[in-house]
Design a protein that fits this description.
Structural class: alpha+beta
Shape: globular
Distance between the termini: 58 Å
CATH class: Alpha Beta
CATH architecture: Roll
CATH topology: Nuclear Transport Factor 2, Chain: A
Largest sheet: 6 strands, mixed
Order of helices and strands: HHHEEHEEEE
Number of strands: 6
Helix content: 25-40%
Strand order of the largest sheet: 2-1-6-5-4-3
Number of helices: 4
């Protein structure tokens, strides 16, 4: 009887220990990982162009929302970006949050898109972006929604 009570107590304690929430430092560390991924994504876009950056940072099952249409999956995103190698896109995250499990997070902030119109005039669009990030099997962060 005592042995069964001991085993039951052990299993209950084990169950509670598996459900502990991460501490504040762990959450902040995950947030910093996502911010680093976002900033590296932006730096890659500025240096190597938008299509290189998006393909480097999108998950295989990532989705882009563009012009009220969803572009689903890395292969379709590659086709969509094929003729878009602009280096005039920059952004900065203003906010980041991450799930308590550390496998999903999101950012939002402002972006600036500089380009030339058909007459060669320099134009600029500004707006707000929102990106959802998912931790990959190798521990890296890739976006699944942009």
């Amino acid at each position: 009887m005592k042995r069964n009570l001991f085993i039951l107590s052990f299993l209950i304690l084990l169950g509670f220990s598996c459900q502990q929430k991460p501490n504040k430092e762990t959450i902040e560390s995950w947030k910093n990982e996502i911010i680093d991924a976002e900033l590296n994504f932006c730096k890659t876009a500025e240096k190597e162009g938008m299509n290189v950056a998006f393909l480097a940072f999108v998950a295989d099952d990532g989705i882009l929302l563009r012009n009220d249409k969803l572009i689903k999956g890395k292969d379709n995103i590659k086709v969509y970006l094929k003729n878009s190698n602009t280096k005039g896109l920059s952004w900065k995250p203003d906010f980041v949050d991450v799930s308590s499990s550390g496998d999903l997070g999101y950012t939002y902030g402002s972006y600036t898109f500089k380009y030339k119109d058909s007459l060669g005039n320099d134009l600029e669009n500004k707006g707000v972006f929102h990106t959802v990030w998912k931790r990959q099997q190798d521990g890296s962060w890739k976006f699944v929604w942009d």
